[in-house]
TrEMBL record:
Membrane topology field: Multi-pass membrane protein
Comp. bias (Polar residues): 418-427
Transmembrane segments: 12-30, 36-60, 72-95, 101-126, 138-159, 171-190, 225-242, 262-280, 292-310, 316-344, 356-377, 383-403
Short name of one Pfam family: MFS_1
Annotated region described as Disordered, given as residue ranges: 411-442
Record family assignment: Belongs to the major facilitator superfamily. Metabolite:H+ Symporter (MHS) family (TC 2.A.1.6) family.
Subcellular location: Cell membrane
Record keywords, A-Z: Cell membrane, Membrane, Symport, Transmembrane, Transmembrane helix, Transport
Protein known as: Putative proline/betaine transporter
InterPro entries (UniProt xref): H+-coupled_symporters, MFS, MFS_dom, MFS_trans_sf, Sugar_transporter_CS
Length: 442
């Protein structure tokens, strides 16, 4: 819960912003050209392209020097306050150009704080669970992303179904952002009650903490950083395009109602959330790479039929197609993905390594709604989202061939479990499981 709650808050409010982009465009960027207003809205949405990687570097340094617990508490405070602030900004009609300026500032702080959330939460979970169940437990981190997106989607659906357009533009869109403040207080309480992870405590007690985590990572772990970025690219782009951008695409390009677009997307997100822990558990038994290969191939197979049949298809067909590519295929790929990231790096630079690699992929993914809105307006092709996803997934698929198997059960080197708690390779399964059952002590 401590590792995932900040991620849930981040994606709940990211999804509110993405799903209500058309309403927000009218509030902050009034224009006679709807496309221009939407581009401005998605331009602000894409600000993490700059601020998130910077925040990732800053907070990763803290996380690998002072520990996971205190860093994640600071991240959550900044994220909750900046997200809640968005819901308090007056409209353009009330204060003029100051409104979009304040929105930009809030998004900068929000993106900066979010840069330290994902890697830290993943490291916290991975360093706190048994190695034989690590794949399933760490998969709850990306599952919380989908759960936050699903909650935001259902919340937006409930608002748009129960409020008039005038009510939505006046105050309805603000509610989702303001909820971040009480949720953040709950998350902060949980995180402050944690103990530091055993893996970090071990290197701290032995005075083996990295003096300059970023420099050390770039010098000794640059290949693993590129591998994380490579395998993350397809997942992050598909996630943003199919599960965040698609409701806007269905509304603005194919003239579906807002409630219909949110409903089909919510079903796809539900399939995504349910598939992730199943794939994570399978990766504990079969290894991390088999679900990654299956998921990437499935995304490549389904993405073009999905966008081809969006135009003119009935709502049930659209829901099934979204669930296939954005639910089952993406969920299968995502299940073991984050666990692979944390297993690639040693404890002293784990936070930094994962943060650098993941945030590199964010550059292409967070900007995708803006890029696709512009590309479709220039080319007139409704297949642009499919080409964009396919190109990113192809990069990830090729990266898998140079990725080592990281699951300890399949011969991967266990960088995470403290040396004092690792059993010899010759130990039997009973001996390995015994400390947890109380039969033996480490």
């Amino acid at each position: 819960m401590a590792g995932a709650i900040g991620n849930f808050i981040e994606w709940f409010d990211y999804s509110i912003y993405g799903f209500m982009a058309v309403t927000i465009a009218g509030v902050f960027f009034p224009s006679d050209d709807p496309t221009a207003g939407l581009l401005a809205t998605f331009g602000v949405f894409a600000l993490p392209v700059i601020t998130r990687p910077l925040g990732g570097v800053v907070f990763a340094r803290f996380g690998d020097r002072i520990g996971r617990k205190r860093t994640l508490a600071l991240v959550l405070i900044l994220m909750s306050l900046s997200t809640g602030a968005i819901g308090l900004i007056p409209s353009y009609a009330a204060i003029g150009v100051a409104a979009p300026v304040l929105l930009v500032i809030a998004r900068i702080v929000q993106g900066f704080s979010a840069g330290g959330e994902y890697a830290g939460g993943a490291a916290l979970i991975a360093e706190s669970v048994p190695a034989r169940r690590r794949g399933m437990m760490v998969s709850l981190m990306p599952a919380s992303t989908g759960f936050g997106l699903l909650a935001g989607s259902l919340f937006a659906f409930a608002l748009t179904s129960s409020l008039t357009d005038a009510q939505m533009e006046s105050w309805g869109w603000r509610v989702g952002f303001l909820i971040a403040i009480p949720m953040g207080m709950v998350g902060l309480y949980i995180r402050l009650r944690l103990e530091e992870t055993a893996a970090f405590q071990e290197i701290a007690e032995s005075d083996d903490v990295a003096g300059s985590p970023v420099r050390e990572t770039l010098q000794a772990q640059w290949a693993n950083v590129l591998k994380v970025a490579g395998i993350a690219l397809g997942q992050t782009v598909c996630y943003y395009v199919v599960l965040v951008y698609t409701p806007t695409f269905l509304r603005t390009e194919l003239d579906y109602s807002e409630s219909d677009a949110l409903l089909t997307t919510s079903l796809a997100i539900a399939a995504y959330v349910l598939t992730i822990p199943v794939a994570g558990r399978l990766s504990d038994r079969l290894g991390r790479k088999p679900p990654l290969f299956v998921g990437s191939v499935a995304m490549l197979v389904f993405v073009f039929p999905t966008f081809l049949l969006f135009d003119g298809g009935n709502l049930a067909v659209i829901g099934v197609l979204q669930a296939l590519v954005g639910g089952l295929a993406l969920g299968c790929y995502t299940g073991p993905l984050v666990c692979v990231w944390v297993e690639l790096f040693p404890t002293r630079v784990r936070y930094t390594g994962v943060s650098l690699g993941f945030n590199l992929s964010v550059i292409a993914s967070v900007s995708s709604p803006f890029v696709l809105t512009w590309l479709i307006s220039r080319t007139g092709s409704d297949l642009m989202p499919a080409w964009y996803v396919a190109a990113a997934v192809a990069v990830s698929f090729l990266t898998l061939f140079v990725l080592p198997e990281t699951a300890p059960a399949k011969g991967g080197h266990d960088h995470i479990t403290p040396a004092s708690q690792q059993q010899p390779d010759s130990a039997s399964r009973t001996e390995r499981d015994a400390p947890r059952s109380g039969l033996l002590r480490p």
